[in-house]
Amino acid sequence: MDIVDLYLEHGDFRTAVRLSGLPMHIAHIKLRKAGVLKITDKIKFGSKGAKLGGQAEQLFQTLVPDAVDANALFEKNNPVYDFVFKNMTIDVKYSSLYSGGNTNYWRIRCKGKQDFIVAFLEREQSTGVDNPYCLLLPMDFVDMKYMHISPNGSWFKEFQVEPEELRGILNDYAELREIGQF
């Protein structure tokens, strides 16, 4: 059976490689050419940061299921954005909670020409993407390459949304885009 068929049937990279008998790198090349690798593959094989970023992207895809995964369809690890939703580009970020003296904070990279950043912020140290805070940041307001976010700061207080509200808010922006107001 072909590696692509095995991968699609089992949904797991390692299982498909084992069943195919192909070397890992050959299987990877074939699956990349076929464009079938999923976000979860990054979660299973990447560094801790890549895994958490992949989990954040997977969470976003769960919350906004009709968003198109740009990494899968256009370019893996697209440097500008991760998803397209109704003609709007969205870069999904994850940040662990850091402690610096008496303060806690998060830090995300904001570089790019995407329309929005959706930032999932670790609620408590070492909890990862389990019940994170969610920020929806329109790039109209972002003019820095890196953002330092503190629990008492304006970014956190003014742009925090409930994860379940994310899709509805993005739909509101999409309506503005349709009539030329965004």
Describe the fold and architecture.
The chain has 182 residues and is of the alpha+beta class. Helix content is 40%, strand content 23%. The chain has 8 helices and 9 strands. It has helices at 3-10, 13-20, 24-34, 39-45, 48-63, 70-73, 154-159, 166-178; strands at 68-69, 83-85, 88-95, 98-100, 103-109, 116-121, 133-138, 146-149, 160-161. The strands form 2 sheets. A 6-stranded mixed beta sheet has the order 1-2-3-6-7-9. Helix 1 crosses helix 2 (13-20). The mean pLDDT is 87.
Quick summary:
The protein is of the alpha+beta class and 182 residues long. It has helices at 3-10, 13-20, 24-34, 39-45, 48-63, 70-73, 154-159, 166-178; strands at residues 68-69, 83-85, 88-95, 98-100, 103-109, 116-121, 133-138, 146-149, 160-161. The chain is 40% helix and 23% strand.
